[in-house]
Amino acid sequence: MRKTLEQPVAEERSPTVPSRVAFRQHPLHPIIVVYPVTALSLLLPADALFLWTGNGFWATAAWWLNVLGLGSGLLAAVLGMADMFLIPLARRHVSVWSHFVAGVMLLALAAMGVWLRAPDHAAVWPWALLQSSFTLLMVLVVGWLGGTLTFGHGIGVYGHCPGEDSADAADEALDE
Q1: What SS3 state is found at 160?
Q2: What is the distance of C-alpha 140 from the center of its chain?
Q3: pLDDT at res. 14
Q4: SS3 category, 75
Q5: What is the C-alpha separation between 60 and 122, in angstroms, rounded?
């Protein structure tokens, strides 16, 4: 049983490129990106519930989810672009540019959803429903590409200095 709260460290660690836009080494883009992902992912279920129940609450909820998704998505995009332009190595990865282009497409879909719903939150059929369906698909694509950057390439992650923690130090902590 472990006797310390220190994280165990794998013997082989993939190389990482720490985020340049971080607060105390915690990258801000991954912290903020959960809000647009959540809001825009819930857009399609809210539209479906409105069409199924006819309850106007769900149309209003979809409107606010769309507005929240667009606003927080713009903030996440600014933070992500700052990392992209401040990390020279990142710009060499095709995945970074794919994530960037897909993210712009997702923000365009979110903006279209706000525009479609602005005159009447209940005007869901058929265009807003199509928009929320494509939005969910784009959330999955953008999330997949972002995960590839983080977990596959180690770009924009929690910064650590080589040698600050080693497998030997973790093994000693476990033995104590």
Answers
A1: coil
A2: 10
A3: 57
A4: helix
A5: 7
